[in-house]
Every structure is written in structure tokens, then in C-alpha cells.
Amino acid sequence: VAIVDNTPYVFGFQPDNAIPIESWYDDPHDRKLDDIRGLLDRLRTAADVRPVLVEAFGMRKQIENADESMLQEGWAAMS
Description:
Elements: E1 3-5, E2 18-20, H1 32-35, H2 37-45, H3 49-56, H4 59-78
């Protein structure tokens, strides 16, 4: 299963299944899904989509880095 969304918080419990894209609202010329078509074609034949998506986007690592950054900023503000 792959999750395609423009809001990263929806990936919270399955970050290894994430395909982040930019918002498409109010854009009659949106081509976001076309932009990831090659990736979607690769996923179609993958036995497990997670390794492919981790290599492509690494959302779990991005979330961990964001959490760490927020903690550091919080500690710095308290000092």
C-alpha cells in the first residue's frame, strides 16, 4: 500500500508507505500524479513497496529529523 498525499501528518503511522506531493487544489493544470507515474509503475511490480518508497523519500528519517530539530529548538528556547 502506498499513501499519496500533500499533508505529511497523514503518514504518521506508516511513513515507509508515503509518497509526498505538493497541493493540487485550485490548479487546473496540475500534473502531480503524472510526475510520479514512473514511481507508481515501479510500485506496481514491487513485492513490497516500502523499500522503494524509503529509498525515494525516506519519510521516517525526515520525521525523526524534524522531531529532533523541534526538540533542540525547544531546549534552546528554554535556555
